[in-house]
Amino acid sequence: MATSAKAARRSTHGLTKDQLVAAYRTMLLSRRIDDKEIQLKRQNKIFFQISGAGHEAVLAAAGLVFKPSYDWFYMYYRDRALCLQLGMTPAEMLYSAVGAAIDPNSGGRQMPSHWGHKKLNITSTSSPTGTQFLQAVGSAEAVLRAKALGITEGFEKDEVVFVSTGDGTTSEGEFWESLNSACNLKAPVVYLVEDNGYAISVPVEVNTAGGSISKLVASFPGLYIQEVDGCDLIASYEVLQKAVAYARERKGPALVHAKVIRPYSHSLSDDEVMYRPEAERDADAARDPLTTFPKFLVSEGYATEAELAQIQEEVDAEVLAATDDALQQAQPGPETVHFGVYSPDVDPTGEQFDTEDDPQFSGEPTTMVDLLNAAMRDEMRRDGRIVMFGEDVADVSREEHLGKVKGKGGVFKVTWGLQKEFGSTRVFNSPLAEANIIGRAIGMALRGFKPVVEIQFFDYIWPAYMQLRDELATMRWRSNNAFAAPVVVRTTYGGYIRGGVYHSQTGASLFTHTPGLRVVCPSNALDANGLMRTAIRCEDPVIFLEHKHLYRQTYNKGAYPGPNFMIPFGKAKVVKEGADITVVTYGATVQRALVAARQFEEEKGVSVEVIDLRTLSPWDQETVYASVKKTGRVIVAYEDSISWGYGAEIAARIADDCFAWLDAPVRRVASTDTFVGYAPALEDAILPQVGTFLAAYEGIASF
Ligand SMILES: Cc1ncc(C[n+]2csc(CCOP(=O)(O)OP(=O)(O)O)c2C)c(N)n1
Ligand SMILES: [Mg+2]
Q1: Per CATH, the architecture of 351-560 is what?
Q2: Which residues contact 311 (CB under 8 A, 6 or more apart)?
Q3: Atom in ligand 1 nearest the alpha carbon of residue 194
Q4: What's the CA dihedral at 181, 187, 192, 197 to 10 degrees?
Q5: Of 503, 513, 547, 549, which one is the catalytic site residue?
Q6: Domain spanning 22-329 has what CATH number?
Q7: Which residues line ligand 1 (CB under 6 A)?
Q8: Residue pLDDT, tens place only, 431-478
Q9: pLDDT, tens digit (0-9, with 9 covering 90-100), for 615-657
Q10: Domain 573-701 top-level CATH class
Q11: For residue 55, which atom of ligand 1 is closest to its CA?
């Protein structure tokens, strides 16, 4: 029988000789930049290094399958080879390493390998492991929602979203939350798990039950799963093609589990010799794609040794030139530190957000719930990109029941009827998962949607706090204004409702202490309406605190002020004028301060000025200082527990800036340093009451 003398060439699944050689070039370039950075770090010319070594093959393959500046990318720090393949230059990477002002990744604000490139649709990468997943799902569902709504601007016909992770990071809860939603929504998102067997020093079997993430996720409905040797470029290309095609065809999400190696330690701050035996490291080295792939190219006749040597020479020269370039670049100047904390273009404290003097009232006075609902309804009519979601915010999830039942519209009815009017693509329920709500909202906001989301109770905001503090607030600053997530986060808070420990929490200072967030807290229906419009129309993320106890009081009702009524941020309101004592407060303590002030004035003839801050960050220093300079006595009052709270900051500022005008120390009225108790006798003793204010007025007046 005649047999060919030469063994058949391995299939390249359509990859041409030129593509194979180019992929090798990218892999080598990636490794050489890592090596150069390691050298620069040792020379103290850069300040951090984490490599993509060992991950290059699957990433170069990904770069051949995903479309640059068409698909969207949520990466992690090992993805250097993919960035190169998509078009980021070695110089741009090294700008990041030296912390150069012109670095497109973050302008020197983030450590190197925190990828971000606006033109390449590489979204800003942060450092917390696992926060990328829900945002990627948000980005992918934005594609589906845009299509359903007929929105084409900013979207491509069959685009997909890439999200990558290490093996250890799949232990984060948000990974599982994201898979849940990706499958439920059939979102076109492709997960790439780059499994190098370790999370710093912790091996995969400690992180992952059974040691295989692809086996563990096997029961997620509609999730297309592939496992592959990620050190093998051609095999990786083959499975990535299938996975990406599945998502492009809108069949659902896909997950590729790629086994890679980590030939260098976790980062330059780690020494793997401490926890990995030599034999294991040798076995890894034998799989190194930078050794095996060039051998393959030569043995199969795709390149000669001489051609590869030529490539190495070119790559080295390129890295050298990029290094010289980067080392000459200036770091950002100290005058730039505040740039991009908030939008540099739209100022919500500005006059264009102040129509308070021109309300177009109609109808009878109504509750805060109704006027919040009205403001959101107006805004949703005005702007088709507003989407609204959270737990129970829809009228009824099962659409066939819509119109047959009254509808839920939030546990406090604030979003009632909005799904009915605007449809289920724009108003929908989230799973019972707070990080899910904020993470997806950030992903959608980056794609041009305006999410107005609800966290049902402040007491349960904590699972979302990573997304709020490390993602929502930082997005604009950390990307040097390349990306922004102007999400409005509504949440109900506060006591006086016999809600006990877990339905009474306040905690505004958790957000006012976070740069990048605007924090709003209305005390009455009209303010809530005007502030909500500003929150939605501005370009910063807003935490909108809605006091449950104030939702349906009779004393804070207002008439509907028309669809263009806006109150700017940072504009307090003097709710009662007075000459002797100033009270600075917000939320539910406004009314208590006021009732006490009237009584105190009547009984003692001492007049109290009550200021409602309305927005907590920014806050209206001008109005407060003017009042303090008039009265010389000031109390800062708030519902939070007294110590370490919001009032400490206001008190310190007043002490700093108004010292010469003060006739008494700045005093605080607030809750006890406890939680809030359920029994009325407990709750009354814990939260500030009218009597607490009367005692404080008495104390400061007689100082
Ligand atoms: C939320 C969070 N916890 C811990 C860390 C510190 N940390 C950074 S990378 C890392 C290990 C990640 O391992 P893996 O996901 O396997 O990725 P690999 O580095 O192996 O590619 C840890 C613990 C972090 N950045 N964020
Ligand atoms: Mg790992």
Answers
A1: 3-Layer(aba) Sandwich (3.40)
A2: 21, 24, 25, 28
A3: 21
A4: 20
A5: 503
A6: 3.40.50.970
A7: 78, 127-129, 165-169, 194, 196, 198-200, 266
A8: 999 999 999 999 999 999 999 999 999 999 999 999 999 999 999 999
A9: 999 999 999 999 999 999 999 999 999 999 999 999 999 999 9
A10: alpha beta
A11: 21
